[in-house]
Give the backbone structure.
Amino acid sequence: MARSGINPELLQTFLLDHESPINEIMLFKHFFPHVPFDLTNYQFFKAHFLIHHNLYKLKTQLIQQGYLMFIQLSSVYILKIPEAGICSWFSETKISFCGNSADNKFCSYHQKINRELIEKGAVDLDPLQEYYLDLKNLEQLDEQSFRQFADSGIYLADNIMKVQQALLVFTLGPGAPISRITSRYRYLVKESHPDSGGGAAYSFQEIKEAYDVLAAWKNLG
């Protein structure tokens, strides 16, 4: 398997030729047809990593062409970015843009939301991008190490994906220390409380489950 794994031009053509969403199984069958879709297989994890590495590399290029690529753990969506005068605030839960009239990039309502997020020091809504773009994260996890993690019952590929999903809930990157995770957990719990208006993206149960996954992951060290 090549270092980068996928020809970026072929990947772009494949994505734009298909209707969204494009699931990971479709990408596996097209670019890694000989790799078994087996969550406990190291070659599967390596192919999974390379697929996402190339998706995140292509994401920036597609923005320049007027497309937004929204990457979930198992699906990819390609959406045309709204033209000037239309609010381009993107909702990850609805997987769509706002679409209301806007003087600038966002409508007045989402300009306010954006300011509040900046003031709170909100991070990039796609925290896994840094992880997948750095091929060292793949190279450091060789087959022997992967096997050791798999034997531990924690680092099976499906559990790696659970960690990734939990990081998305917390809008944190893989390098976040447990102290930052705990701080973010307390904030999200408060935000999810009904007295806060019920505007949280995730329920208390989802936040609690995400915290349990991340705490177990960090405690391995």
Remarks:
- The chain has a mean pLDDT of 80.
- The first strand starts at residue 22 and ends at 23.
- Residues 42-64 form the longest helix (23 residues).
- The CA atoms of residues 114 and 120 lie 10 Å apart.
